[in-house]
Amino acid sequence: IGSNMAQTALMMRLSSEVCLYDPYKPALDGVAEEMFHCGFEDVSITHTSDMATALSGAEYVISSGGAARKAGMTREDLLKGNAEIAAQLGKDIRRYCPGVKHVVIVFNPADITGLVALVHSGLRPSQLSTLAALDSTRLRSELAKVLHVLPSEIHNCRTYGGHGEQMAVFSSTAMVGTQPLNSIIGTERLTFKEWASLQERVVQGGRHIMELRGRSSFQSPAYLSVCMMAAAMGGSPFRWPSGVYLNTSKYSHIVMAMETLITQAGIVHKDILGTPKEEEQLEVSYLHLCKMRQEVIDMGVLPKVEEWKSLNPNLG
């Protein structure tokens, strides 16, 4: 999705200097040529297959640099290879751009790749966020289609926890106009059966895109990730849930989607209050991420949790 991210960032005029990186030079050269042909004004566009050149002095980094999902795969199927890529990215950030202000991790499974990159980078938790908003925007889109309203009429759609098939889809937060979504679920307008089917479509939203287009999502994650970075650079705050590092009494040493706000000060989160059933779903999602975290530790990509602080003193 890198070319879409680059074009979006250039169209939003986020910076006067944009560097494109890809280890596969022929494709990178083609993308760069396309960007040049757009005729963007007052911007320096460079491209490189050398990570040191790409990151040196960078203030903001968006990485979609893992393998993409293929048909029949889940986000979790990408775990080993992409976790190793994330570890190297974190080390490269520490080495080449320790003064970076914000990093957005997009590639799946984003909760784990973001966690791995954070541990190895030495960054503060407020400096790194992961793309999770796509699940919440999919929820809003599905509700708009079923209820026959504009997406803008639906507010505070939220999914929390893992950016994967174990995500927790909340209904208690959402409003349709002035009506709570929960007052509509179970009526003729949205039966319990239709709501269950809708939740499944949200959870399987990425798979559906692959069935339709023959490849994983790229336009929507590209746009949302650039909006996240625009907020970190001082633009309009990003208010959709994003992946954030947590170390609380309830959620320990994990990155997952929470109620967050991204501004120029970084990413912050606040506690989530849902129904007992929603809280239970969120706990299941958290425990699933803990299991994946342990798999990455067993692979040797991350050290044991108690050793993280020696790599990154910012992780309490």
**Radius of gyration from the CA trace?**
19 Å
Strand order across the biggest sheet? 3-4-5
Ends apart, CA distance between termini: 33 Å
Overall mean confidence score, pLDDT: 94
Return residue spans where pLDDT drops below 50 for at least 5 consecutive residues: none
Percent helix range: 40-55%
Classify the beta-strand content into a percent band: 15-25%
- In DSSP terms (H or I, runs of 4 or more residues), the helix count works out at 12
Number of strands: 13
**What is the chain-wise order of helices and strands?**
HEHEHEHEHEHEEEEEHHHHEEEHH
The chain-level structural class is alpha/beta
- Any idea what the shape is? globular
Describe the structure.
This protein has 316 residues and is of the alpha/beta class. It has twelve helices and 13 strands. The longest helix has 24 residues, at 276-299. The two termini are 33 Å apart. 39% of the residues are buried. The model has no long low-confidence stretch (mean pLDDT 94).
Set down the secondary structure blueprint:
Blueprint: H1 2-11, E1 17-21, H2 25-37, E2 44-48, H3 51-55, E3 60-63, H4 79-96, E4 102-105, H5 110-121, E5 128-130, H6 133-147, E6 154-155, E7 158-160, E8 168-170, E9 175-176, E10 179-180, H7 181-184, H8 192-203, H9 205-213, H10 219-232, E11 242-246, E12 254-263, E13 266-270, H11 276-299, H12 308-311
Parallel strand pairs: 1-2, 3-4, 4-5
Antiparallel strand pairs: 6-9, 7-8, 9-10, 11-12, 12-13
Helix pairs in contact: 1-10, 4-5, 6-8
